[in-house]
Amino acid sequence: MKRFEGRVSIVTGASQGIGETIARELAAEGAAVVLVDIQKDKLEAVARSIAESGGRAEARDADVCDPAAADRVAAAVAAAHGRIDHLVNNAGITRDTLLMRMKEEDWDAVLRVNLKGTFNFSRAVLRTMIGARYGRIVNIASVAGQMGNAGQTNYAASKAAVIAFAKSLAREVGSRAITVNAVAPGFIESAMTGALPEAVRKTYLDLIPLKKFGLPIDVANAVKFLLSDDAAYITGQVVSVNGGMYM
Ligand SMILES: NC(=O)c1ccc[n+]([C@@H]2O[C@H](COP(=O)([O-])OP(=O)(O)OC[C@H]3O[C@@H](n4cnc5c(N)ncnc54)[C@H](O)[C@@H]3O)[C@@H](O)[C@H]2O)c1
User: Which residues of 143-160 are buried (b: 16+ CB within 10 A; e: fewer)?
Assistant: First the structure.
């Protein structure tokens, strides 16, 4: 039996990158996966491709910033499946610039997606999880939220906040057998990082003891562990997936 057979997972920001890989991996392990994103066409293509390879996936076009949309998705999933076992708060954006030049919109946009999105979806699924006395929530944070990064005051603050959010919620819902953890990726190969100049990539590599960038699957493996029964006694923790860049 696959380890997530019978489980229902919601993954936000699932139309590409790390979220797509997490969604594919959960489906491959038997979960019925609900993919949430604002990129409707890409999202539907990913859901179709998961279904074509024998997995269970459905696309829900929703903006994590919108609390009503989060409530609608959670209500529809609970009605259709009768359960929500996993929530992975992965949707995230950057608006990098030095603080002196940062516009209020840059600050608000990043906090709205990365932090408020996590609040919206976590609150939306909680009633169902509490009713079931079972649940797993994983927030995708970042090494920037642990060690800071020049040019990312907004992003780093939002990622430190989703760690604090996970710890606080873990304390609230632990008695209902719901765990809440964070995964903090370091430098992961992605469309964004692939476009960096060679000199910048080299500077980052020098900081990483394992001397290579991570892959989306490295993050997905940590998420799968935290969602699994093997992690039943782990809550309020941060799992760093960063090649040793920050210890
Ligand atoms: N790539 C890295 O090196 C790295 C490192 C540390 C942390 N992270 C975090 O991992 C997560 C995924 O990153 P990625 O590299 O795959 O990024 P990405 O930009 O490739 O994917 C992010 C996804 O989130 C979606 N999204 C954005 N705003 C949304 C909204 N309002 N509502 C719903 N969906 C929305 C996007 O459409 C996209 O599909 C993010 O939270 C990011 O901060 C990434």
Answer: bbbbbeeeebbbbbbbbb
